[in-house]
What we know:
By secondary structure, this protein is α/β, with parallel strands linked by helices. Helices cover 50% and strands 14% of the residues. The strands form three sheets. The chain has a six-stranded parallel sheet with strand order 3-2-1-4-5-6, with helices on both faces. The chain has a three-stranded antiparallel sheet with strand order 7-8-9.
Amino acid sequence: xxxxxxxxxxxxxxxxxxxxxxxxxxxxxxxxxxxxxxxxxxxxxxxxxxxxxxxxxxxxxxxxxxxxxxxxxxxxxxxxxxxxxxxxxxxxxxxxxxxxxxxxxxxxxxxxxxxxxxxxxxxxxxxxxxxxxxxxxxxxxxxxxxxxxxxxxxxxxxxxxxxxxxxxxxxxxxxxxxxxxxxxxxxxxxxxxxxxxxxxxxxxxxxxxxxxxxxxxxxxxxxxxxxxxxxxxxxxxxxxxxxxxxxxxxxxxxxxxxxxxxxxxxxxxxxxxxxxxxxxxxxxxxxxxxxxxxxxxxxxxxxxxxxxxxxxxxxxxxxxxxxxxxxxxxxxxxxxxxxxxxxxxxxxxxxxxxxxxxxxxxxxxxxxxxxxxxxxxxxxxxxxxxxxxxxxxxxxxxxxxxxxxxxxxxxxxxxxxxxxxxxxxxxxxxxxxxxxxxxxxxxxxxxxxxxxxxxxxxxxxx
Length: 462
């Protein structure tokens, strides 16, 4: 029977959904699960919720909960990574230090300074996980759900030979949204999507032989539809194709919205600090989840649209499927680099995962994507070679950062963020001719920022 290890299982809702999805397959009703997290309290709660899910599905899995990562992955067939290194405290640093320099974000988990520093602090842990997998479960497949997806996948593929795929729900989730806009059923519509994670585009959208894009452009003129996704529809108006990632994410991937002041931000409904609000909501839900975990009643489960369980089923049983995965390009998209992490249709069966050949993307889509590929390449070189100058340069080529800050402020901001994140980052000792800011910083810790935010929220609710 298969063994599935979930690393970062203290992310309780995600662990619960993935467990329920896997146990929904009759073949896996007696699977082995090993949950691992460094937070023993959240880990115990997550495991308890998963046991309730199993009871509701009539399954009898073996469930282990441990803070020992090596014990969790030993002899695993599949390892699922959901870690967020630094948690909410580090996220606050990613928002608040750039804010001092005039940079504001919506989500800050994919690109720009937020995505870059999230990737840098994930690098040591993810590299170590892959080294442990090569020793303890050398044939296991790693399913990565942690953001920033593309940079984390660079870590996996550039530092190990672990077979791995990055998984997101943007492609299938947005397809369901497009069907609602068009009033069509999923069985009647075909699509081809390609690009990089959070910046892939539906380059084909058809009903039989009929191109559905003219209808989508017409639907955009309906204010009730356009106002649900103003940023993405504006990008489609200019680029000709619809993006996989939400408007709140997409607004910070380009220089066209946030840097142009409050009027543009209001016009396109850009929710500055959206991710911080989501984190606040998660904190408030924690006590409810604690109560749920203490109950002995079965917990109902409705299958999610995450690809993870389907991949596990296809590899274990040989049933072929097509999913959308993130792996090294290696010729799938003809006009993107071979070592770029791309997101394209992916075949999966007993032999594992294999990209399909997409061909060239439209040149305007490549232009939109290219700065982020440069940032991802500079990130992995910074982490592997200990090069602080590559950190500066990765931030320099981020479109939003470049639209707001001059070069000296970009370097200064990076130096302050390096100081604030401290030992969570890989060492950056390499000396080059590129100068630092030369300044001394005393940035607030994530703990300090969390206390400040708690006070602000209390004042707002008073």
